[in-house]
């Protein structure tokens, strides 16, 4: 079923008690082509989703349970739109294997649902071809459970692809001593610095440097409402994309 059908698409939200989950519930309820049929809190059974006849479920929980939730959804033929980070290559591989036997079921795992953040990741891959140096600073609220963020990891991977396509080697860095980890994490060869600070929501700066110049890409989400257009896009499109898609850019026409 697509959003052009007369009957609204039946949607469940897992993690409805959280800040992102409650925002997603409001967004689904406000959409005339969608119907919120289940809003699950921490102690609710997943069977509530099938009992309600949901066709798509949005998982906005925590890293410790998201893989288990999505596995259950796929087993029951329900499309999944996932904003929870913490996925590894192993858990993604297990999910891909499961989806091979789940005819027509689609899963979208999006490190970031903000359209601007998705564009910044794509632009970073393009810019990476032209600069010797690249680093990422990601800034989030102090209640975030993982670091670096999924967005930063996705951005680092994009930069690495761009550098590889251009035949660039390692980012120049003469640091020999860093006992306190001041240079940050290294993800796909790119240094990533994580800030956790009260008052922030979700922010990322990507810095590129070349001889005599610096180029910056920056995206700021000041409110969780910024993620909702991407969440709704995922809900409406996931059934048309069977199998696993990682990154909302897979649903956008970005070339």
Automatic annotation (TrEMBL):
Q: Which pathway?
A: Amino-acid biosynthesis; L-lysine biosynthesis via DAP pathway; (S)-tetrahydrodipicolinate from L-aspartate: step 4/4
Task: Name its cellular compartments.
Answer: Cytoplasm
According to the record, the segments passing through the membrane are none
Q: What's the catalysed reaction?
A: (S)-2,3,4,5-tetrahydrodipicolinate + NADP(+) + H2O = (2S,4S)-4-hydroxy-2,3,4,5-tetrahydrodipicolinate + NADPH + H(+); (S)-2,3,4,5-tetrahydrodipicolinate + NAD(+) + H2O = (2S,4S)-4-hydroxy-2,3,4,5-tetrahydrodipicolinate + NADH + H(+)
By its UniProt entry, which Pfam families does this protein fall under? DapB_C, DapB_N
Residue intervals of the Dihydrodipicolinate reductase N-terminal domain: 10-113
Q: Which InterPro entries match?
A: DapB_C, DapB_N, DapB_N_CS, DHDPR_bac, NAD(P)-bd_dom_sf
Keywords per UniProt = Amino-acid biosynthesis, Cytoplasm, Diaminopimelate biosynthesis, Lysine biosynthesis, NAD, NADP, Oxidoreductase
**The protein's Enzyme Commission number:** 1.17.1.8
Stretches assigned to the Dihydrodipicolinate reductase C-terminal domain? 116-247
Keyword DNA-binding set for record: no
Question: Molecular function (GO) terms listed?
Answer: 4-hydroxy-tetrahydrodipicolinate reductase
- Where on this chain does (S)-2,3,4,5-tetrahydrodipicolinate bind? 141, 150-151
Q: Active-site residues?
A: 140 (proton donor/acceptor), 144 (proton donor)
- SUPFAM superfamilies recorded for this chain? Glyceraldehyde-3-phosphate dehydrogenase-like, C-terminal domain (SSF55347), NAD(P)-binding Rossmann-fold domains (SSF51735)
Which residues make up the binding site for NAD(+)? 15-20, 83-85, 110-113
Report quaternary structure and partners: Homotetramer.
Biological role? Catalyzes the conversion of 4-hydroxy-tetrahydrodipicolinate (HTPA) to tetrahydrodipicolinate.
The family note in this entry says: Belongs to the DapB family.
Report the protein name in the record. Answer: 4-hydroxy-tetrahydrodipicolinate reductase
Q: What gene codes for this chain?
A: dapB
């Amino acid at each position: 079923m697509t959003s052009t059908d007369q009957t609204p698409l039946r949607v469940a939200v897992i993690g409805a008690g959280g800040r992102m989950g409650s925002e997603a519930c409001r967004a689904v309820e406000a959409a005339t082509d969608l119907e919120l049929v289940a809003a699950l809190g921490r102690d609710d059974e997943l069977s509530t989703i099938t009992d309600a006849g949901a066709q798509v479920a949005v998982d906005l929980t925590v890293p410790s349970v998201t893989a288990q939730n999505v596995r259950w959804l796929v087993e029951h033929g329900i499309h999944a739109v996932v904003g929870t980070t913490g996925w590894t290559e192993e858990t993604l591989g297990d999910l891909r294997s499961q989806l091979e036997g789940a005819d027509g079921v689609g899963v979208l795992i999006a490190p970031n649902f903000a359209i601007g953040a998705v564009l910044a990741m794509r632009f970073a891959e393009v810019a990476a071809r032209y600069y010797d140096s690249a680093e990422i600073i990601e800034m989030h609220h102090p209640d975030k459970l993982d670091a670096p963020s999924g967005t930063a990891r996705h951005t680092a991977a994009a930069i690495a692809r761009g550098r590889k396509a251009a035949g660039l080697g390692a980012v120049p860095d003469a640091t020999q001593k860093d006992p306190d980890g001041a240079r940050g994490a290294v993800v796909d060869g790119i240094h990533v610095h994580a800030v956790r600070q009260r008052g922030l929501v979700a922010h990322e700066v990507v810095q590129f440097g070349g001889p005599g110049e610096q180029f910056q890409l920056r995206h700021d989400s000041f409110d969780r409402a910024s993620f909702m257009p991407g969440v709704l896009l995922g809900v409406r499109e996931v059934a048309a994309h069977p199998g696993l898609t990682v990154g909302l850019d897979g649903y956008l026409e970005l070339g």
